[in-house]
Design a protein that fits this description.
The model is unreliable at 1-11 (pLDDT under 50). The longest helix has 15 residues, at 19-33. The chain is an alpha+beta fold. The protein has a 6-stranded antiparallel sheet, with helices on one face. A two-stranded antiparallel sheet has the order 1-2. It has a single domain, classed as endopeptidase fold (from Nostoc punctiforme) (Alpha-Beta Complex), CATH 3.90.1720. The radius of gyration is 15 Å and the shape is globular. The chain has helices spanning 19-33, 47-59, 74-83, 89-97; strands at residues 7-8, 15-16, 100-101, 111-114, 117-121, 125-130, 133-138, 144-146. A hairpin with a 2-residue loop joins strand 4 (111-114) and strand 5 (117-121). Helix 1 (19-33) runs antiparallel to helix 2. The chain has 4 helices and 8 strands, in the order E-E-H-H-H-H-E-E-E-E-E-E.
């Protein structure tokens, strides 16, 4: 077993020992593949799929695998959240990732939620997908966060 395959057993999800390196690689790969001004690729690279990829990079588990490719529009995403998820994005994140916590408790690699969207906490900043690419948002201004 290599060190990259050893998992740290912690709450609430199991992170790889080298999770920070994996998260950095994921963020660089996604960041370089997003064309500024491009439309959201619903079901392929929207906020839900973006954070699910980060969780998968950190833990090896994709909490939103059943959502991938299941919708192509914002209306389709809402239908998927009702049909596959727990009704809306915030409730689905809580079901898939666990109990909400206050933004001040968010740590690097956690998932942040604000104004109907989710992003990746990298410290004092949370990264969200926006029309112009990756958008930086103050972590303390999140509505809530979820542990990874």
């Amino acid at each position: 077993m290599t060190s990259a395959s050893i998992i740290f057993w912690g709450d609430p999800m199991n992170r790889y020992l080298d999770w920070e390196h994996r998260l950095n690689d994921y963020l660089v790969t996604v960041g370089s593949s997003i064309t500024p001004g491009a439309q959201v690729a619903w079901g392929k690279m929207d906020c839900c799929i973006y954070v699910a990829g980060a969780v998968e990079a950190i833990t090896g588990t994709d909490p939103m695998a059943d959502f991938r490719g299941r919708y192509r529009t914002s209306a389709g995403a809402l239908r998927a959240l009702r049909k596959i998820g727990s009704g809306d994005l915030r409730s689905t994140l809580a079901t898939r990732l666990g109990t909400e916590k206050p933004p001040a408790s968010a740590m690097r690699g956690d998932i942040g939620y604000s104004d109907g969207a989710c992003g990746i906490v990298i410290g004092k900043i949370t990264l969200f997908l926006g029309a112009g690419g990756v958008v930086r948002f103050p972590t303390l201004k999140l509505e809530c966060a979820y542990s990874v």
